[in-house]
Known about the structure:
Main location (chains A, B): cytoplasm
CATH architecture of the largest domain in chain A: Orthogonal Bundle
CATH class of the largest domain in chain A: Mainly Alpha
Number of helices of chain A: 7
Largest sheet of chain A: 2 strands, antiparallel
Strand order of the largest sheet of chain A: 1-2
Oligomer: homodimer
Order of helices and strands of chain A: HHHEEHHHH
Shape of chain A: elongated
Domain HTH dtxR-type (chains A, B): 2-63
Pfam families (chains A, B): Fe_dep_repr_C, Fe_dep_repress
Bound molecules: manganese (II) ion
Protein name (chains A, B): Manganese transport regulator
Strand content of chain A: 5-15%
CATH topology of the largest domain in chain A: Arc Repressor Mutant, subunit A
Keywords (chains A, B): Activator, Cytoplasm, DNA-binding, Manganese, Repressor, Transcription, Transcription regulation
Distance between the termini of chain A: 51 Å
Radius of gyration of chain A: 20 Å
Amino acid sequence: MLTSSMEDYLEKIYELMREKGYARVSDIASSLSVQPSSVTKMIQKLDEKKLVTYEKYRGIVLTAKGEHLGKLMKQRHKRLEEFLRMLRIKEETIQNDVEGIEHHVSPATMNALNNLVLFFQQNTDCLQEFNTFCDELEELNQDLDSSNQ
Amino acid sequence: MLTSSMEDYLEKIYELMREKGYARVSDIASSLSVQPSSVTKMIQKLDEKKLVTYEKYRGIVLTAKGEHLGKLMKQRHKRLEEFLRMLRIKEETIQNDVEGIEHHVSPATMNALNNLVLFFQQNTDCLQEFNTFCDELEELNQDLDSSNQ
Ligand SMILES: [Mn+2]
Ligand SMILES: [Mn+2]
């Protein structure tokens, strides 16, 4: 079992390796807003789980299994973002929610949410109807609020 | 700020009070699968936050604020369940996912998910189209799997 924190590290190391070709302790620390000493400890744990190794000149490197998992974490994060973006959630709220939700979404639920995004992308009339439905609900709520004041 | 654990306790105490009229330490402990000593510690924390009080003959009682929050937790839990049930997720997976997700869903996202449930309930043609879409995707995936064997 991976902890939420391990999942965040794998996602971040995967991201850094894709962007820069390597992942340094200092880069991981600054992008996760943690102390370098915490990164070092976590790297040891991930090493014990055979998800990363340390190579003398390249630094921290994901194993095949680590890369597979990091890619899954990254994909899950991106797909949850897309889902919430489709629901017209504010960008800041999306980032907050996804950072928490991602660690608790089963593959079955993730698949269903992704299907929902694909469905609305291909059936824009349904998406349009849904957006109108939301706008009407919001107007109703605003009317109720102002009549209660 | 409430921790995930505090949210679980408030939800459970609210539930017990609605069902039985009171919440005993032993009932809370068994329904959350924790030790009675953990319940006692948490009740102290919730007491400091003025969310529960201890009354000599009634036992643990939610304050008005505690009851308001407990009700919100319970509602959020139920609505997330409804949402995942609409997506045809297995009951066991629903319970697991909701226990984790609920603590990380912002009010804005919760509202949007609830709108989605209401929308599909009122637009059953869209829901039907979505279900067909999912079934077709699944068939395609099964075909791909079997042709890869
Ligand atoms: Mn993430
Ligand atoms: Mn719950």
